[in-house]
Amino acid sequence: MFNFTIIRSSSAISAIYCDVINGLALVSFKNGNVYAYSNVSRRAMMNLKFNKTISLGFWVNANILAARSGAPDVAKETNVANLSDLTYSQIQAFCNA
Fold first, then answer.
1. What residues contact 12, with CB distance under 8 A and at least 6 apart?
2. Helix (H) or strand (E) holding 4
3. How much is the pTM?
4. More confident residue, 94 or 2
5. Could you give the number of structural domains in the chain?
């Protein structure tokens, strides 16, 4: 329940993986880029899970990118070039660096 992947129709985003306990979101874009974000609102992640009408692009813009631009310590971004080569703990380490 606290770790889940959201896949919906989107022109830019393939999937969003959420770890609610740790406030971590991995966003996989259709162009192949994957970004890891730490300090993501846990409430926003649960809202994404249960509100099936939220656009993935809107959610990322409103809850990750907008939050990050307002305060430098919120929703820190890490580009994860090849996600399959990294373990979950390595991704967390990138986000917390």
1. 29, 30, 31, 56, 57
2. strand 3-6
3. 0.74
4. 2
5. 1
Cβ atoms 58, 64 nearer than 8 A? no
Q: Which residue has the tokens 């990050």?
A: 68
In the numeric block, the tokens 């907008």 are attached to 66
Find out whether 12 and 29 touch, Cβ atoms under 8 Å: yes
- Decide if pLDDT at 92 tops 70: no
Q: Which domain holds residue 13?
A: 3-96
**The token pair that represents 56 in the structure block:** 């993935």
Dump pLDDT digits (tens) for 39-86: 899 999 999 999 999 999 999 999 987 766 555 444 555 555 555 555
Q: Can you count the helices (H) and strands (E) in the chain?
A: 4, 5
**Structure-token match 């692009």, residue found:** 57
Q: Are 61 and 54 in contact (CB under 8 A)?
A: no
Query: Per DSSP, what are the bridge partners of residue 80?
Result: 34
